[in-house]
Target: Dipeptide/oligopeptide/nickel ABC transporter permease/ATP-binding protein
Amino acid sequence: MSLRPTTASVRAVRPQPRRRKPLVVRLIMNPLGAITMLFLLFVVILGVFAPLIAPAPPNVTDLNAVNAPPFSPGHLLGADQSGRDVFSRLVWGTQPTIIGALIVLIVSVAIGVTGGLLAGFFRGRLEAVGNFFTDVIMSLPGIVLLIALYTLTGPNIPAAMAVFGILVAPTYFRLVRAVVVGVRGELYVDAARVVGLSNTRIIGRHVLWAVRGPVIIQSAFIIAAGIGIQAGVDFLGLGNPSQPSWGTVMQDAFNNIYNNPIGVWWPALLISLTILCLVLLGNVLRDELQSTGVKPLTVRQRRHAVDRSEPSVRAVPRGDYAIAVRGLRVGYPESDGHIQEVVHGVDLVVRKGEIHGLVGESGSGKSQIAFSTLGILPKEAVTLGGSIWLDGEDLLADPKRLVQARGRRIGYVPQEPMSNLDPSFTIGAQLTYGLRAVKKISKVEARRQLLALLARVGIREPEQVFKMFPHEISGGMAQRVLICGAVAADPEIIVADEATTALDVTVQAEVLELLRELSRERGLAMIQVTHNLGVVADLCDVVSVMRDGRIVEEAKVDDLFESPKEQYTKELLASSRSVEIIEEAS
Ligand SMILES: Nc1ncnc2c1ncn2[C@@H]1O[C@H](COP(=O)(O)OP(=O)(O)OP(=O)(O)O)[C@@H](O)[C@H]1O
Model:
């Protein structure tokens, strides 16, 4: 099958996973990252090499140059009301400004990150105390506090910046605490505890790694805030007038604004550009640190990637099918712009009333097919080609048809019953809402139908269960509720993705029995996605075996178990039997 020229070409063979470039390289390669870093580097060079760059010392006056305009001889940006060179004063003022911002950063990181780590990891009293201090600090009026500090310490910018660092520490505290609370609940942290790692090592290895991204991103914004506040404090006259900083240059220029209006431009421009670059760099850092490196395809790229030219894919399937998949190809974009194809031209015909098992090892593409028929592939997935036929209509040719069919003509039974029910609403409210979304009936009629159906799927006291919340029912009941929801709209086909995997063996058998009965009673076709050959043997009429995004064998269930044709199917059956033998022996 040939592909039209595409902006994102498709690759069917899985390449070696590409290592992502180091963060600095990625930042340099990002145009916005490169420009902002270049400007910030320029600022740092100004600060570090001030004695070499500045043409004059900061406080030297030249009475002949009072209020000299920009580009006067010897005064690139002009001179102030005392005849001091503005460019030199800005250059000399860069270092104290950077140091002030760094003091804010160091103090706030030391307090906020440490506090957040401890509070989030150990929780309990530590967290309560941390939250209390955070609330207290956040309620303090920052600028008033800095002015009050002036009465105690005099013009002491480092002390003012350290206090500002304490005032902004809660932003780190809250951020880090929230991330750590999430991480400490992860299974890999439990696993680290079980293997005997100490808390210090768990924090050092797992937790610190998780918070590094958010902390780096936040730091860019905190430095920007530090520069702004320092300029503000100096502008208010709370800094040391003998030591130039961007804020004091700004203050001098403002005091002289009627005689030399252009004088305020230069410090304002320098402060604004530096803050702007830090904020933009923060945004670039967020994009780089929090993304997977894979850029979502544009609508145009998606359109170009789709190939609908294959005639066999376009032909309306014949026969008594409930759903027919033709030449389905699904892919995912990779960081280098290629699309990695994971389902390679799959054909699957499910006849009316047939229960069709889709088996295969993990990652073989079973869920991609199930999700394609429902139109619920992850948003980054690209349907590269193929068709999905329901009653003579190609659902893939018109996304609206797919949306209309979902829930009405194609029902879905998911794998995790509990996580598919909203804990905030009663069972009845959720079922009624779902049914009325697809069927134009009154609430009373919906309730009547649903209560009858709940009884049918084996719920003993439907009226009671209708009023219950999901946490009040068992996993098996929850799965029956979801099956009730899936069949309530009278669909022609049900797609069940590992519908019994999360249930214990006895409940599994009951749910399988229920699905079989519903299929018979209602002439319902089903696609059963499973890796369990026992489920296939118990439930299915026909089975398709998948491997690496292809169907390698399709057969009636009895034929497949008695005389599998493909080597892979034989291996799959053999491995399933050996698991059964081990389970029986143990
Ligand atoms: N969001 C995604 N981004 C990139 N690749 C994905 C994504 N989801 C699935 N894949 C890839 O698609 C392929 C098929 O995955 P799929 O989930 O359909 O397999 P499966 O047979 O259903 O496996 P399992 O039984 O484990 O659910 C795999 O190679 C997987 O890595």
The CA atoms of residues 224 and 276 lie 8 Å apart. The radius of gyration is 33 Å.
